[in-house]
Structure formats: C-alpha cells, structure tokens
Amino acid sequence: MYRRSGNNRFIDNLRLQEFANYLLTNEHDDRDFTFVVENNEITCHKLIVKHASDGLRKKFSEWEKLKEPKVTLTNVSYKVFTRLMGYIYTALFNYRGLNDKDALELLKIANDFELVELCSEICSEVESKGFLSIWTVSKFMKMANDFRFQDLHNTCIKFMDDHSLEVIVNNTYLDIPANLLVLVLNRDTFYSKEIEIFKAVKAWLDKNSETVTDEDKTSLLATVRLNYITESEFEAIV
C-alpha cells in the first residue's frame, strides 16, 4: 500500500474546510442554534458545536436554560468567531489574515470554551506565525500566566531575553504584574545595562503607583544591582 502524498492531504483538508463553510453559510433545516457576533448571525448545528468540548457543553447547558435559540457574544469579533466555528467543524484552523490582536482574542475565547487542543496549537504557533513582537509579548505573557499556559510562558520569557533592550526601551512591559516583571528582570539571560533595569523598575512603579504594594516595591527594587550602576549614571536620573 502506498502512502498518500502531502498534496492529497492538502486537498482533503481544503475540501473539509469547504464542506464546513457550506454547512455554516448555506440554509439547512437542521441548523438549530444561532450566535450573534457584531450584529452578524452565525447559525450552526447545536449537536456539533455543543459537544466540541466540556466547556461548550457547560455553556450550552446555561444557554438552554434561557430557552432561546440565539445567544449574543460580546467578547469576540466576527472575524475570529467564524474562524473558530470552522475549527469546531473540521479540527483545522485557518490562520491566514489574522493579526496579533486576533490571536490574543482567539486564545481567550478558545480557553473560555475549553478547546484544549486549539489552545495548545495557538501557544505553539504564536512566534512562528509572527504574532509575537516587542509590542505584544507582555500581553501574551500575562495571558499565559492567567490561563497557566506554560509553553507560551516559556516562549515569551525567551523572546524577552532575546529582545531585552527593545522591550525596556519601548516600555512594553508596563502592564504585566509585578511578579512577572521580577521573574524577567532576575534572569541572568535578560541582558541589559543595570541603569536601564533601574529605569524600567522606576517606570513600572510610576505607571502602577496606585495599585502597587510595598511587597511589590521591595521585590522590584531588589532586582536592581546598584553596584553595577556608576555614580554619574545614577546622578543623571535621580
């Protein structure tokens, strides 16, 4: 028996996606549930979508109590949700045309629906698909921490190590929690001049002055090795 070629596999995947698109965009009497996203209606087969994950089964049990065959979702864009529905029908995800904002949104709703395999796939693809940058790494890192995506966390940490100067200079770390910033700055592989580390800590404390705790201040200031800062550098900013 001969193995099927990769090209045939591509054709099969394409046909599967076309079939899913047909089921979702053409009128069928057996489509019995509707999502409303950004004023657009996406009608689907409840039996298929409901049993795509434990999370969706829980969601549907809540929605069914409302006795309404229509649910409005406000935490996702139409663009991302239609891609998500295609994945539920085919187990294949089309990343073409998505940007970093879409990827963050996708990861959030995939986690909310407990689509475990899709979450794992997204976490492994964020860098290779170009979603990770100095402008988004902190957002992905915070999400990885919130949802306990260890692989994504490790990817973000390594990215910050590799782009430490750009991350600091562009202040893209200001919205991550203090404990994550401490973790990043304490790494020997996060290389930057100590005066830049000091500036980063000061900028974070200034930005988060209303919510920062004394414990956070102590932990952050402890990441700065003052003996590596020259008197002239210190006098220039203090």
Automatic annotation (TrEMBL):
Q: Per the database record, which ranges form the BTB domain?
A: 31-97
Q: CDD domains this protein is in?
A: BTB_POZ_ZBTB_KLHL-like
Tell me which Pfam families the record gives.
Answer: BACK (PF07707), BTB (PF00651)
A single cellular component GO annotation: cytoplasm
Q: Which InterPro entries does the record cross-reference, listed alphabetically? A: BACK (IPR011705), BTB/POZ_dom (IPR000210), BTB_POZ_domain_cont_9 (IPR052407), SKP1/BTB/POZ_sf (IPR011333)
PROSITE patterns to which the protein is assigned, alphabetical: BTB
Stated name of the protein: BTB/POZ domain-containing protein 9-like protein
Natural source organism: Leptotrombidium deliense
